Amino acid sequence: MNSHSKELEFEKALVLRDEIDAIRKSMQEQKIFLDSPINKDVIGYYDKKTICICVVMIRRGVLTGTKNYPIEETLFDKEDTIASFLKQHYKEDFLPNKIILPFDIPEREEIQTFLANGKYDLIITPPSSPREKEEVLLATKNAELFLSSEKKSPLEGLMNSLGLETLPRRIEGYDISNIGPEIKVGSQVTFIDGKPSKENYRIYKIKTVFGQDDISSLREVLSRRFKNKEYLPDLILIDGGKGHLNTALSVLSSFDLEIPTVALAKQEEDLYLEDDFNPDMDTDSKNLLIKVRNEAHRFAIKNLRNMKRKASVHSPLDDIPGLGPKRKVKLLDRFGSIDNLKKAKLEEIQDIVNNSSLSETIFNFVKTLK
C-alpha cells in the first residue's frame, strides 16, 4: 500500500482491498471455514509480467495466514509453474490434507502421489464447488495486491539504481541546441514527482559563446542557473555524453554544490554517471529519464524556431553597411531592442562591435531612426 501511495495509485489499491474484504466477509457469513476438521491450502495465481503465487492457509477451519511468492522470470507456462511450485514448496512435515489449485494441471495426480509418499492423506484438486472457487478468488486477489504493492515507482527505481540518498522528486533536464553559429539556446525543464512542471521551465540565450560549441554553451547555461541556489534539484540530467557530464560536474563544483548528475546520450540511450556507466535500471525508471531528456530537447527546439522566425524579419540594422548578422545578433542580445540601442553610448557599442569606424556608423545611423 505504501508504494501505491507513492505512485498515486490509490484507487487501484482501494479496489483490491475492498474486493478482498468483501470475499472474506462473504466467507464468514457462509461459515466456510467453521466446523471443518481438515487443514487445507488454497493456491492463487496472478501473472502480469511478474508472477505471484499466493498460498492461503486454513487450519482446522480457520484462516491462519497467507504467503506470497513472486517469480520474476520463468520459461514455464502457468500449469508447469504451479507444478514446479508444488514440488518445491511442500515438504512432508508441512503437508495439509487438501490443496486447492487455481486450475487443473496435467501432473496433478502424479504430484499428489509423490508428495503423499504413501504416508499421508492428501488431495490436490482444482475448485469443485462455489465455496472453493471463492477461496481461490481470495488467494488470487491477494497475489494481485501483493504484486501491486511490491512494484516500485520510477522515482524509487532511480533512487536505487543511481545510489541516491533521497527520492529525486525534482529533476532538472538540460539541452543545448543551435541553428547555425549565431542562434543558440540552452533549455531547462523541470519535473516534479515525475511530472513536467512547466512554470519552472527556463530558456537561456547563449551570450558568451560564438560558433557551435555545446560544451562551452552548457557551461554558460549551468553557471547562470546555479548562481541562484534556490529550489535546487535532487537530480540533474544532461542531454549528452561523458564530456557534457564532466562539464556539469565542474560547474557544480565551482559553486560548492553536490547534486547528483547524469548524462543521457541519444541513439543508444547510454547513461553516464560520474563513476559508472549504464547501471542496471528498470524500464519505467529509464523511460522517465528519456522523457525528461526528450522534453528538454523539444523545449529548446521550440524556442530556436521562434528565434529564427524573429531573426528572419527585416531589421533596420540590416541597412547598415558593413554590419553582418553575427554582430547584429550580438547587439540585439546586449541591448534587447532598437530603442535601447538608440540610447547606448558610442563606447558601449564599440565594446560589442570592436571596430571603431563601424561603431560610429551604427551610433549615427540609429540616431536617425524614428
From TrEMBL:
- This chain's source organism reads Candidatus Methanofastidiosum methylothiophilum
A GO MF label: excinuclease ABC activity
What SUPFAM superfamilies does this protein's entry cite?
Answer: C-terminal UvrC-binding domain of UvrB, RuvA domain 2-like
Question: Which residue numbers delimit the UVR domain?
Answer: 1-26
What name goes with this protein? Excinuclease ABC subunit C
All copies of the UvrC family homology region profile domain together span: 46-252
List GO terms (cellular component aspect). Answer: excinuclease repair complex
Span-the-membrane segments of this chain are none
A Gene Ontology biological process noted in the UniProt record is: DNA damage response
Which InterPro entries does the entry mention?
Answer: RuvA_2-like (IPR010994), UVR_dom (IPR001943), UVR_dom_sf (IPR036876), UvrABC_protein_C (IPR050066), UvrC_RNase_H_dom (IPR001162), UvrC_RNase_H_dom_sf (IPR038476)
